[in-house]
Each structure stands twice: as structure tokens, then as C-alpha cells.
Amino acid sequence: MPATTSACPLDCPDACSLSVQVEDGRVTALDGDQRNPLTAGFICGKVRRFAEHMYGTDRLLHPAIRDGAKGEGGFRRVTWDEALERIATELARVRSQHGGEAILPLGYGGSNGVLTQDSVDARLFRRLGASRLARTVCAAPSGAAALGLYGKMAGVALEDYEHAALIVCWGVNPSASGIHLVPPINRARERGAKLVVIDPLRTPLAKQADLHLAPRPGTDLPIALAIANWLAAHGAIDHAFLRAHTRGAEELLARAEPWSISRAAEIADVPQSALERFAELFGASSPAVIRCGWGGERNRNGGSATAAILALPALAGKFGVRGGGYTMSNSRMLALEPLRAAAEPETNTRVVNMNQAGRALAADASPPVHVLFVYNGNPLATLPNAELIRRGLLRPDLFTVVFDQVMTDTARYADVLLPATTFLEHDELRTSYGAQVIQRSRPVVSPVGEARSNLDVFGALCERLQLARPGDPSTPDELVAAVLAGSHDGERLAGMLAEGDVAFATIERPIQFVSEFPRTPDRKVDLCPAELDSAAPGGLYHYRELVSRFPLSLVSPASRKTISSTFGQLDRRPARLVMHPGDAAARGLVDGVVVRVWNELGEVHVSLSVDDLVRPGVVMLPKGLWARATKNGATANSLSPDELTDFGGGATFNDARVEVELLG
Ligand SMILES: Nc1nc2c(c(=O)[nH]1)N[C@H]1C(S)=C(S)[C@@H](COP(=O)(O)OP(=O)(O)OC[C@H]3O[C@@H](n4cnc5c(=O)[nH]c(N)nc54)[C@H](O)[C@@H]3O)O[C@H]1N2
Ligand SMILES: Nc1nc2c(c(=O)[nH]1)N[C@H]1C(S)=C(S)[C@@H](COP(=O)(O)OP(=O)(O)OC[C@H]3O[C@@H](n4cnc5c(=O)[nH]c(N)nc54)[C@H](O)[C@@H]3O)O[C@H]1N2
Ligand code: SF4
Ligand SMILES: [Mo]
Fold this sequence. Notes:
Rossmann fold; Dimethylsulfoxide Reductase, domain 2; 4 domains; six-stranded mixed beta sheet; six-stranded mixed β-barrel; binds ligand MGD; binds iron/sulfur cluster; binds molybdenum atom
């Protein structure tokens, strides 16, 4: 059987191009191909197993209506007609009795494609006058920082890391979260490049690094400011670059001034000599590149921390050479305008920050939510303060729709369940926040069971609610055309996509400050943007210490087994909380015992793994666990605060503070 081509649309920077084996109308195997050069013929283990996700026992095959108590997962099969009629009736009733804002769409990346999000779904919810969702669970503070300082200019291409003499992996774990960066890093190291990793965990790259700084979570801001201060004190500032290309450097350096290496080392709890060594290496190396990840943004200082990290290559003049500069998110590289496909302007209805979804779902919220429409997301498994969300989902007067591919933990609380297609069963257009590629894929097999695409379902609901209008783009090709027509360089991309199913970015492996400049209004770096300064409590670059009566920091990073919570159903092994031997000994705990991890928000019962993979004072449970992975069905998200980052309204997962004891 010939292989068919597709593109992985999952929430991963690598955006792999795929070859798919199909036999008798079923997908039998997936692998990487060469069309996206970054993929280089290999993919991660998760997506190689995608057929198990498609055909596994957790796959939703037909619409269903709740039959039993919320959360218990009892459902009765119904026809699409009955399910859609029930939903349309409820949407219409709630809108007329309580107003559109009583309807809340909830989800995040889903499979991260352009057609399955912000297209027909946005049309429906805008025309209903529903509450708007601030999609802030990820990249909100780092995105605001990158936008404020650099207008989100394109970053160093991941392939170009092989040209660097110094690579800094700062709050990022590519061995799990973007595996195609690892080979370029290894190639650079074979040529003598130095590697620095800044992470409270001894990640696979940290084990090989020339220098591993393992700070307390949430202390990157003092570290970055101390480096800035050190550069100033040691004549390592590139004043010519600052004059030509930046604004606000004096203000930034003034705010960094109180941060000596020793003070930052003390707050971050890293050796002063190690911090000095990092400053020396960074000052002296070229090309030097910082891969800034998302681990450092998920705490109360996350916005300022990311801004301070991204300021360093400007201060030290690291741009202008291939392999020098920084990479954050490349999401604006192609400047696609997905919402053009909605064909409906944005409303001015109330905005709900998804990181506080639990608060919005409370019975006494104002105005209360009466219809919750979950799609492209698994909020119980991925949002902060999950136990508050659970209480909302249990409200008898809340009507919940869950539209997903599999029976997620959230789906068990649905009143109506709708089965969704996967990217191998529907059309998609995907860009990437890492690789420089845009890809158009078409279905390679028919939908499994009665699954339908987001386009079909939201289109059908528009029709039933008489919200469809003549001329609305609705077929995949019409939607792609609408997106490209509204996008910078869309005509050229449309031409490329007409020829094949992959188009590459307009910017081929940019060199920052040679072929790519800040996309700020004056093309300069703004090192102290007024907007961020007024948004951050205490001002931009102001460090806030977290005071808690719970002594341990719980971090919950990406794991190799899932993409957020996607594929969590395929992992049947129980999860384990990782704790440093010193912390375990202090509590009389040994490897393998069952512990209670708790704070004021909830508790998790789980087995213990004693390992110095984590630094003292830090415990780790992976992100994206399903209820079945722990003994009481709670996860790290049951313990994550729903406070927000300093700016951008981001999630503060790694501000979770907990205590651990033997489960008696
Ligand atoms: N396999 C896999 N790949 C993924 C994902 C996945 O779930 N699984 N998720 C995708 C998504 S949605 C995203 S956003 C990216 C995220 O990818 P990454 O940027 O790698 O983000 P995280 O895994 O959240 O955290 C990265 C590292 O930051 C560390 N960290 C935690 N707190 C701090 C801190 O305060 N300071 C510092 N310096 N480090 C800290 C963690 O220990 C972790 O090793 O990955 C994407 N790729
Ligand atoms: N504790 C902790 N929690 C975290 C994080 C953390 O660091 N720590 N990181 C956060 C991050 S970085 C992110 S990005 C969020 C992600 O949060 P979510 O987006 O909620 O995460 P996913 O688990 O990817 O959920 C996507 C769901 O959409 C479904 N889906 C996929 N494609 C389609 C489609 O075409 N149609 C429909 N209807 N459904 C579809 C999938 O089956 C899956 O159940 O999680 C966050 N959660
Ligand atoms: S999840 Fe990432 S590494 Fe895996 S196939 Fe998709 S794009 Fe590639
Ligand atoms: Mo994310």
C-alpha cells in the first residue's frame, strides 16, 4: 500500500511532515518524511502510535446524551440529529433567558490547526454573543514579552543551532517537548559548542551540559537581571548595538542594578560561581543563542522573567550572525489571520480568562454560565485549580457539551457528547510556533465511527440556529482561501499551497538583525515597554517572592508520553511523584510508598519516586495526567493556583506549593 502524506498539527513546535500507511481504509503506521527539513525523517513515539489513539477503546464513535449522574460517565447513544437539536435548543433558550454571555466556549489548542479553531466555531459563538475566552493557558506572558520587546520577530531557526558556539536552554526541555532541536544541538556540541541548561530538573540535556543551573522555580528574573548587571559591570554591553537598535536600555539596566550575582544566587539558590561562569560564557561567546522555553513563564514572575531573558542578546550584542540571538515562539512568523475565516467581527462581550475557568463556572459568578461548550481542550486535566472546575461541572443548572475525539476526564461530565475527527480524518492547515513551515493536509481515511469535524459541527449549529449567512466560507478550501486572503504574503502562500500540500515560510532561516528585524512600529527593540511596565504589579522587572506555608514547589512539565493531556488514555501505568532524596529522608519517605500531596486547593494520592532528578525543595508530577494515573483521580492541576502571571494573564502552574506525607 502506498504511503500518504500529512502534517502533524499537535501542539508541538516541530510541525512534522508525515508519511502515513493506510491499509483497507485504516491507518496502520505513521512516520516522519523529508518535506519539512526539520522533521528529517523521524517523529516522536507519541505520534508513531497515533493509530492507537484513533482506534482505541476510548475513542468516541457516536453522539451520546448523559444517562446517570454527572461525572460518572454513563451515556446513551443518540443520532447526530437528536444531539444537535438538543444543543441548539439549549443555546437558544439560554441566550433568550440569560443573554449570550451565559454561553462559554472553552478549549485551547486542540490539534492546533487553523481550520479547526477560530473559524466556523468563532462564527457561531460571535453570532450568539457568547462570552469570549482569553486563551491564556500557555504562552500568554512570554508572548506579551516577546511582542513588547521585539514585536514577535522570527527567532533563530532551530536547524541553525548547529552554528552556535554557546547554546542556552532556558526553561525548556527539548528532549520531551520538541525533539527535533536535539540533533542540531548535538551537532553544535560535536564542533565544540558549550551548552548551558537552566532548569530545576536535571533534564536529559542538563545531564550533558557544560553548566546546569538548577534554580528554585520562579527565580529566573533575578538570574537574568544579575546577568544584565554583570555584563554592564564587566564592559560586556554592546553600546553601538543598543544605540542603533534599541530603546529603554538605561531603564532596564537601572532596574537590574540592585541584582548582584551574589544576591540572585542566594534567591535562586544556585552557586554564585556557577552564575558567574554563565555570565562569562554568555559575554564571551559568539554565536550565542538562547532557546527560551515556557517553563519560566508559568509563575507569578513569568512575564518579566521572559522579558529579562529576551533582553540579554540585545544587551550583549549577540545578533547579526547565523546561530546567534534567541528563539521563543515563532507564531507570528507567517502572520496568518485565522479569524478571517470566521467571517464575523469580534464582539465586545465579557472576557473569561481560561486560567480562572473555575471561578467563571461557580454558581455565584456574575453573570453565571449556563452553557459550557468544551472543544479542542480537556480543561479538567489541563487548567489550574481543577477541583474548582470540577465543582462547576457538577452544577445541576449547567448544560455542558463536550466535543472530543476520546472520552476525556472532562467528557465524563458532559450532558451531550459529540465525537470529533482527528487530523487524519479531516482537512487542516497548520503553521507552527517552531519550524518555519505551513502545511495543508487532507483526510487520508474516512471518519472513524460517526465522528465529524469541527467545521461540520459548528456549521450545522449555525444552520440550526439560523445564524448562517449567504457567502459564509464553509468548505475547507473556502476557509483556507479566506485565511490566506487576509494574511501578509497570503497570495504567495496560496500559490505554493496550490502546487503541493506544503508551503514554506517566506523567511528562510532568518538571521536576526540581518534579514529579520523587530516588528515593532520603529523596528527597534523596546527593552522597557510602557505597556508591560504599567501592567506588571510593581512595574516591569519587579521580582515578587512567593510566601507560602507549604514548603515544596510542585512543577508539572511536559512529558514524553503526552502532548498536554492528549494521548493520556494510552498510558496505563500509574504516575509517580518525583522527590529529592534529601526531602524524602526529612519526611521519612522511601521510594515506592504511596503519598498524599496536598495544599489548600486539593490533594493527590500517588506513589513516590525518590530521585535527584529534581533539585531539593522541588517535587514533580508530569503535566497532562488523566485521572486514572493517580490513586484518587486528582492531578497536579488539582493543586495549581489560579492566580495570574505579572502580565499577560498567564497560568502559574509552577507556583503550586505543597506538602507531602505518607498516605495513612
Ligand atoms: N512531549 C510533549 N511535547 C510537548 C508538549 C507536551 O505536553 N509533551 N507540550 C507542548 C506545549 S503545549 C508547550 S507550551 C511546549 C512546552 O515546552 P517547554 O518549554 O519545554 O515547557 P515545560 O515542559 O512546561 O517546561 C520546560 C522546563 O522548564 C522547567 N521549569 C519549570 N519551572 C521553571 C522555572 O521557574 N524556571 C526555569 N528556568 N525552568 C523551569 C521544567 O522543569 C521543564 O524541564 O511543549 C510542547 N511540546
Ligand atoms: N499542570 C500543568 N498543566 C498544564 C501545563 C503545565 O505546564 N502544567 N501546561 C499547559 C499548556 S502549555 C497547554 S498548551 C495546555 C493545553 O491544554 P488543552 O488544549 O486542554 O490540552 P490537550 O490535552 O491538548 O487537549 C486538547 C483536546 O482537544 C481534542 N481535539 C484535538 N483535535 C480536535 C478537533 O479537531 N476537534 C475537537 N473537537 N477536539 C479536538 C483532543 O482529543 C484533546 O482532548 O495545558 C496546560 N496545562
Ligand atoms: S508531536 Fe511534535 S515531534 Fe511528534 S510528530 Fe508531532 S510535530 Fe513531530
Ligand atoms: Mo502550551
